[in-house]
Design a protein that fits this description.
The structure is a single chain. The protein has strands at 2-7, 10-13, 18-26, 33-39, 46-51, 58-60, 68-73, 78-83, 92-99, 111-112, 116-121. The chain is mainly beta and 122 residues long. Strands 2, 4, 5, 6, 9, 10 and 11 form a seven-stranded mixed sheet that branches. Strands 1-3-8-7 form a four-stranded antiparallel sheet, with no helix packed on it.
Length: 122
């Protein structure tokens, strides 16, 4: 089992920045690929960014490329999502997820956090 706890969400004005963190506990963090997802009210959950277990491979959905950066610190069992130039359309509940397999796009994830709310005002 892996437990994931997100933090860092909040209310920010358009153009602002936020740093989301996801702390993992349980099994060896460095064995897991990690991803960030988001779900806005009335919409389906959307993949935002993913990172391989070593951090050597990252991938982003087109709508956040150049604005968001995913990273991880395996010594701290934490994955981050640095969000910049935020827009109102980025408003959503943001989740981190862990996958016990090599990273690839559209892969299934095994464990999920509870989410942290990000609200961007115009």
């Amino acid at each position: 089992q892996v437990q994931l706890v997100e933090s860092g969400g909040g209310l920010v004005q358009a153009g602002g920045s936020l740093l989301l963190s996801c702390a993992a506990s349980g099994r060896t963090f460095s064995n897991y690929a990690m991803g960030w997802f988001r779900q806005a009210p009335g919409k389906e959950r959307e993949f935002v960014a993913g990172i391989s277990n070593t951090g050597g491979v990252t991938y982003y959905v087109d709508s956040v490329k150049g604005r968001f950066t995913i990273s991880r610190d395996n010594a701290k069992n934490t994955v981050y999502l640095q969000m910049s130039s935020l827009k109102p359309v980025d408003t959503a509940l943001y989740f981190c997820a862990a996958a016990f397999r090599p990273f690839r796009i559209n892969m299934p994830y095994d464990y999920w956090g509870q989410g942290t709310q990000v609200t961007v005002s115009s």
